[in-house]
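Figure 6 in text form: structure in, sequence out.
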């Protein structure tokens, strides 16, 4: 008698063995169904979180700081420097940077506008500003310039500590700030 025939005889003649095999197969199928369902739900949640991140990166909706907070503001205005000529667009860039420095209690010492730009940066206007600002306001200034409209890019930042360092931190920092923005040209 072969092993197959002996197993068949044991299954067909003994109800306990056949019931045990039936319950084992049923438990295995149930386990497969449950794990498959859990995997599908997990993949669905991963797709939903990836879609939410994609929407945020594409700018369809801003990220909420703490859940459903509504204090997130979206800057208004054009993303490009406005102006009918390159000179007017350069003046807009100077005005935007100087206004931001003054807004945070700083002083603009000098500015220099580069209308030509590097050949690799065609369409961009650049400027260099020498300013004085308190240390706590420096981060706010940089954030305001890069997060506001028009889109501006900090190309270079050099910070010099005050010469009268008495330990109290009351002196203003001297900063050299290179900023650029894109101009679409005359409309």
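Output sequence:
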């Amino acid at each position: 008698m072969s092993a197959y025939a002996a197993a068949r005889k044991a299954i067909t003649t003994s109800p306990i063995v056949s019931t045990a095999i039936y319950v084992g197969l049923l438990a295995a199928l149930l386990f497969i169904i449950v794990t498959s369902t859990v995997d599908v739900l997990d993949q669905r949640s991963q797709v939903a979180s990836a879609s939410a991140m994609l929407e945020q990166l594409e700018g369809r909706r801003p990220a909420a700081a703490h859940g459903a907070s509504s204090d997130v503001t979206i800057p208004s205005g054009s993303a490009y420097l406005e102006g009918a000529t390159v000179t007017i667009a350069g003046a807009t860039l100077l005005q935007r940077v100087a206004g931001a420095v003054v807004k945070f209690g700083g002083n603009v010492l000098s500015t220099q506008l580069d209308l030509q730009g590097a050949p690799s940066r065609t369409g961009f206007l650049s400027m260099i500003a020498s300013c004085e600002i308190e240390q706590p306001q420096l981060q706010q200034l940089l954030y305001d310039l890069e997060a506001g409209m028009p889109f501006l890019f900090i190309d270079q930042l050099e910070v010099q500590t005050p010469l009268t360092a008495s330990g109290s931190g009351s002196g203003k920092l001297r900063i050299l700030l290179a900023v650029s923005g894109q101009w679409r040209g005359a409309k």
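Caption detail: The mean pLDDT is 84.
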